[in-house]
Each structure stands twice: as structure tokens, then as C-alpha cells.
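Meet our chain:
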Amino acid sequence: VHPNVSQGCQGGCATCSDYNGCLSCKPRLFFVLERIGMKQIGVCLSSCPSGYYGTRYPDINKCAKCKADCDTCFTRNFCTKCKSGFYLYSGKCLEKCPDGLEANNHTMECTSIVHCETSEWSPWSPCMKKGKTCGFKRGNEVRVKEIIQHPSAKGNPCPATTESRKCIVQRKRCQKEGKGKKNREDKRKKSNKDESKETRQESKGRAARRQNREQRENNNKTQPKKRKAPNKEQDLAPVDAAH
């Protein structure tokens, strides 16, 4: 039947011919016919190519074709990947997904429709105006909710996640200096700086007062010596008059 059958074949063939290629394969390899123009050549592969699935028999392992719309398949009736333009669903390739499902153009599968899910509303925020909570009577307060599950293409869209309403509060003045750790630290640094400045000024003042005091003491020490001669002449004046 097969002219020129040979036992010394290449490429995993157990038997082969010059005209038909592989006629049988070595153990665990799959036999598949490849078309080259008008001619079919037998080849032996470790796994079946795209569009084929493998079947094992006692005498030979073969690669059989998948259905026309299948790119890869597990068996002829169970597809694992579809060709372009088809969506995979339960092993079948469909042009349109069944009701209740939607086509996923990323995975090319029919998937369940996913609706949006959100958390409960948060408590209302403090009444504010222009980012402040003081210095006004009428302001606004807001509340928010988080998105837990984003919807799929056909799923119900998410509602607004922020609400705002007007509010009225008792007017109070805004403090000039803000509260908080940073402001306390800045205030303490400023106080220490002022104290250091006052200390330097006091030190300069004490030095100046000490210098003035020392100068006055020096002046007092020299003044009695200058007044000593006139006092002696005054004491002698009555004596000269008596003579």
C-alpha cells in the first residue's frame, strides 16, 4: 500500500515512506496529516497543533480536527478557545451570548452580568463653608459612599457616591491661631525665640548699667581730691580776718 516503507525514519516516525512521510509514530507521539498543496504528509508531534485535539488508541495516537468555529478543543464537542468572532460558553462557540449573559471582548467568552455594589452612606460631615467650620451661619454638609463592585458592560451603573445639603449653625468666630501640634510647636519656638531676645537685651542692659555705675564710682573717687584745697582756704579765712 505504501511504497518504499522504511524503518529508519527521522522526526519521531516509527515507519515512513518517501512519498507519504510518517506512517506510524513512536510511543506517546501523535500522528497527524498535514496538507501541502494537493498532497498530505504524515507527521509525528508531541502535542496536537491549534485546531486539533488528541485521541489515544492502543495501536496509534491521532490528532483529530476541532469544529470549524473552534481554535482549540478538548474533544470535538468541547471547545476551549474560539476563533475570532465567536464567544466561548460551556464548551461551545457562539456568535451571540444567551440571555442573562454578556460578551466579554477581552476574553472572548460569555460571562455573567455584574451590577454595581456600593457601601452604606457615611455619617454627615460637619457643617462647613469654604473649607472652614467657623465664621458663618449657613453652610453645607456632605456624605459619601464607596464603590464595592464596579459593574460590567451591561450591569446596572453606579449611583452618585456624594450627597450635599445645606445646614445652619450658630455663628462662631474663627481663632486667629490654629490648634494642633504644629501650631503649638511653632508657638513654643516663637516664645523661646522671644525669650532669647529678651534675655540678650537684659544682658546688654545689665552690662551698660554696670559700666555706668563703675564710671560714677571712678568719678566720685576723683572729685573729693579736687575740693580739698578750697575747703582748707575757707577754714583759714576767719583767722586771717582776726589778725
